[in-house]
Amino acid sequence: MKISCQSLLFILSIVGTVVSGQVTNLLPMAKPEAVGLDPKKLKAVDEKMKDLIKEDRLAGGIVVVARKGKVVHFGTYGKRDLENNSPVEKDTIFRIYSMTKAITSVAALMLNEEGKLKLDDPLSKYFPSLQAMKVLDKDELVEAKSEATVADLLRHTSGLTYAWSSNKKISQAFKDAGVLFRDKKVVPMVSGMDKVPLLFQPGTDWVYGCSTDVLGGVVEVVSGIPLDQYFRERIFKPLQMKDTEFYVPADKADRFAANYNYKEGKLTLKDDPKTSRYLENPAFKSGGGGLCSTASDYMRFLLMIENGGKFDGKRYLKKKSVKLMSTNQIPKGGGWVTFGNEVREGVGFGHGFSVRVKMSDWDPDGRVGEYGWGGAASTHYWISPKDDLVVLTLEQVMPYSFNTEWALKGLIYDSLID
After folding, report:
1. With b meaning 16 or more CB within 10 Å and e meaning fewer, what string describes 361-384?
2. Smaller CB count within 10 Å for the chain: N or C?
3. How does DSSP classify residue 93?
4. DSSP label at 71?
5. CA distance 232 to 229
6. What is the pTM of this model?
7. Is 76 helix (H, G, I), strand (E, B) or coil?
8. DSSP assignment of 294-335, as one string?
9. Phi, psi (rounded to 5 degrees) for 355
């Protein structure tokens, strides 16, 4: 039987890309020049990634670039596991840590659209014990002037921190309360967070913390089903995110990447994919940082967001919800996104993403209107609405580094030709 070139191209567009005997999730593809990108300039991305690997800044990684809803670059580089000489492949599974937050935010906004929760609802509506939360003010516990709301959780203005990033008194309170432990379920843990002081009065400032983990608890209470089940039924299955989960099952473990520490110019193994805790299904489904995923899975999620909440003919969110996620929602006087002494001047936060409000010396290759986030193992993504551009970079290196994003951002923007 003869197959015409046209028919063959159609079949390939339906099937997807075959990699190492496996089929990656379907992604809409195009040639760079068809969507206004210079293919020769995009090759600089490959060279820069090779340089970072030679310099031992990372073991390996993936870079995916899409414009006008089409993926034009899907590059794999280096090793997913140095110790076993295993290459990064298109279906390699990565720990995405805080890239989980955007998915949890989408879940909450879905429930908001359905009228099952309101953004201005106080947390005590879902967890009555949280009405008693106190604020740490100059080493003294004081009454909260108002309760933190669902909106505060989405934009990180609740006053909730992480134990590792807070002062000693709050860190100790986390330990004493026994919250955010992998072997405990989310709903009873959130109920116990009334014993953890807030860093400031809710709604008055911005701090990175466990707000999205608490939001995951809200999603469970409102939906009446476990968070992972809600993700699977409402987001993962419809988007065909077949490799995204809170753990890596045994039949996919051979695709799981190693995680590395970077210190003094050297990479050392931090988490062996053959013995990792991510091989076991945890009791605590962390809406703030628990998922593992692949490049194709997460790119489908990002393309849905960039397309105003719709993908492959199915609507997941209304455009107004995506607008809330991708525009600055920090109240006036709340400042910029800040980590310790690092002030990301010009960067605010929406209901799920950081948002570039104005240019500054911080990340000078960025653009106003850019929104995105990253994960603790140096994974990152950004979307530039004005350029109709989506970029995803995946690697597994801790502590978090902007090296890859900042090395590539200028090159990718420079490749735009219209």
Report:
1. ebbeebbeebbbbbbbbbbbbbbb
2. N
3. B
4. E
5. 5
6. 0.94
7. strand
8. -HHHHHHHHHHHHTTSEETTEE-S-HHHHHHHHS--PPTT--
9. -135, 130
First to last CA, the chain: 43
206's torsion region: left (phi>0), alpha (psi -120 to 50) or beta?
beta
Q: What share of the chain is helix, strand, coil (3-state, %, to 5)?
A: 35, 20, 40
Omega before residue 87 within 30° of 0, cis:
no
Residue 141 dihedral angles phi and psi, to the nearest 5°: -85, 125
Q: How many CB atoms lie within 10 A of CB 320?
A: 11
Task: Tell me the C-alpha distance between 285 and 246, whole Å.
Answer: 7
The structure tokens listed for 125 are 């509506």
As given in the structure block, the two tokens for residue 55 are: 């310099």
Burial of 351 by CB count in 10 Å (0-12 exposed, 13-18 middle, 19+ buried)? buried
Give the 3-state secondary structure of residue 72: strand
Question: DSSP secondary structure string, 95-151?
Answer: E-GGGHHHHHHHHHHHHHHTTS--TT-BGGGT-GGGGG-EEEETTEEEE-SS--BHH
Neighbours of 104 (CB within 10 A): 32
* Residue 401 structure tokens: 């580094």
Find tokens 């390996």 and name the residue. Answer: 60
Domains of the chain: 32-65 (no CATH), 91-246+281-366 (3.40.710.10)
SS3 call for 278: helix
**What is the helix (H) or strand (E) element at residue 283, kind and residue range?**
none
Tokens linked to 28:
């809409």
Structure tokens at 353: 């993403």
Q: What is the mean pLDDT of each run of 10 residues along the chain (418 residues)?
A: 42 40 68 98 98 97 98 98 98 98 98 98 97 94 97 98 88 93 93 95 96 98 98 98 98 98 97 98 98 98 98 97 98 91 96 97 97 98 98 98 97 96
Q: What is the CA radius of gyration of the chain?
A: 21
Using the CB atoms, write b or e for 133-154: b if 16+ within 10 Å.
bbbbeeeeeeebeebbbbbbbb
